[in-house]
Inverse folding.
């Protein structure tokens, strides 16, 4: 426990605080370098990950180029490492009763909740990222963001367009009117075009490495079984909310199953926010690169305080006796 925790406890009550961990697409070249330079423990995490990957992930994270960092096998561990680095420096100065992560962000959330060690999370995400990249190469697909239509309408469009050969599904339910679809290229392109006709404000084909959270990731889901079976998952010490169900889970065996299922299942982020609305959340802390999740939480939860722990200065602001507002 960090010595600052007692001083911060009244300002940020853990029972009214949630840690959120970002997922793929939040990365940027240079992320986490200031944290890396400040901590030998953080540098050890990057060295461990580099051995697992077989590439210098610190160099890729900090120097790019962006096209290399965007490759799934590098993107996912790089984002996780940034989140774990922030947790390492924070060292318990801020605590949260709740933890959730967007897609790969679940692994950071499980570390924060005490269900996974940092090194086990790194091992799993390195394997997950490699498997998902292979799936993307074997069965190419794409994704599109549909803005301005509700989930029921988008799912109806998915049903209308999908056939035996080309399928599209709702993959990321980010808010009631921001839904990302995923699947075969032809089906996704058809849905994006038809969505505009049905009243969508925007329908944007995303620059992604594959059709994540869809049937095209089935081989990656299958491949994660062995990786997960070799890792000891503990019962979370805080309330962990998984993507697949958007309801708290405590059984390690169920967490194991859900981590495998989430590769082909939708990210129910909007439903996760709905759950958190019932808990009187007042402080939302995003741990890792970017501010996407705090942006979504601002609209969904209307918390009193939003904190983004991205740069070292963001973290250090909460390690002093008088934390910044």
């Amino acid at each position: 426990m960090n010595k600052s925790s007692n001083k911060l406890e009244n300002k940020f009550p853990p029972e009214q605080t949630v840690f959120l961990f970002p997922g793929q697409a939040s990365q940027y070249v240079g992320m986490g370098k200031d944290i890396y330079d400040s901590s030998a423990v953080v540098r050890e995490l990057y060295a461990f990950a580099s051995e697992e990957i077989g590439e210098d992930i610190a160099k890729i994270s900090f120097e790019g180029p962006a096209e290399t960092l965007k490759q799934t096998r590098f993107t996912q561990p790089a984002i996780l490492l940034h989140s774990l680095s922030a947790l390492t420096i924070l060292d318990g100065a801020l605590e949260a009763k709740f933890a959730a992560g967007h897609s790969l962000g679940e692994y950071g959330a499980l570390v924060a909740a005490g269900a996974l060690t940092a090194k086990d999370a790194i091992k799993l995400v390195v394997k997950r990222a490699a498997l998902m990249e292979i799936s993307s190469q074997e069965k190419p697909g794409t994704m599109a963001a549909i803005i301005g239509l509700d989930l029921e309408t988008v799912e109806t469009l998915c049903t209308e367009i999908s056939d035996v050969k080309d399928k599209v599904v709702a993959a990321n339910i980010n808010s009631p009117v921001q839904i990302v679809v995923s699947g075969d290229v032809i089906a996704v392109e058809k849905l994006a075009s038809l969505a505009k006709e049905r009243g969508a404000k925007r329908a944007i084909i995303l620059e992604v490495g594959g059709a994540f959270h869809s049937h095209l990731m089935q081989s990656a889901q299958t491949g994660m079984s062995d990786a997960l079976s070799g890792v000891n998952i503990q019962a979370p010490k805080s309330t962990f909310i998984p993507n697949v169900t958007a309801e708290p889970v405590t059984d390690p065996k169920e967490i194991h199953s859900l981590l495998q299922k989430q590769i082909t299942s939708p990210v129910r982020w909007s439903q996760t926010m709905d759950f958190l609305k019932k808990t009187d959340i007042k402080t939302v802390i995003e741990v890792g690169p970017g501010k996407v999740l705090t942006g979504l939480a601002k609209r969904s939860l209307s918390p009193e305080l939003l904190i983004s722990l991205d740069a070292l200065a963001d973290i250090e602001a909460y390690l002093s006796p008088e934390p910044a507002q």
